[in-house]
Amino acid sequence: MRPFPIAALVATLLISTPAIAQQEQGDVEIQFSGSVQSKVKKGGSTTGYVQTKFGYYFTDRLELGAFPSLTFSSGDTALGMGAFGTYSFLAADAMTVPYLGAQYYKNDVSVAGDRGWAGFNGGVKFFFNRHMAFDVGGNYLLPLNKNGSSLVLFQVGLSYVL
After folding, report:
1. Where are the domains positioned within the chain?
2. What's domain 3-161's architecture?
3. For the residues 81-96, what does the mean pLDDT come to?
4. Phi/psi of residue 4, each to 5°?
5. pLDDT above 90 (res 41)
6. Which residues does 135 contact at the CB level (< 8 Å), separation at least 6?
């Protein structure tokens, strides 16, 4: 193939009309993301984790889901999990979707006495086409343990909408 037809094919796949971007009721979303977690309290630390989110759109605006995560901190790793709910503000341009929501997160499921964190999240999804989006978001989570520290999570990822 010549370079021009390849470039035209790539442009066609990545560019979509506003009528076919954004999620719809009944869509399933799979997202692969990475985050940085910072403990806000004095003597805090920074930890990184990767996660795979699975969500279902009950309406074109309301998504509920869950995710496993793998946490990396000072050479240690831990398996975690969480649940989330988001409300999307569908934009007129159909290519950007700001959202707000709530999240529960537990970074190590093997620690029995740890209740985890719960709080708020928000961000923006930038759709490349009907099925793919780049997601940038953040979370502010309060501890559910008596002597826990608040967490601020910054996340970037790629979403695939089925």
Report:
1. 3-161
2. Beta Barrel (2.40)
3. 90
4. -65, -50
5. no
6. 31, 33, 123, 124, 125, 126, 155, 156, 157, 158, 159
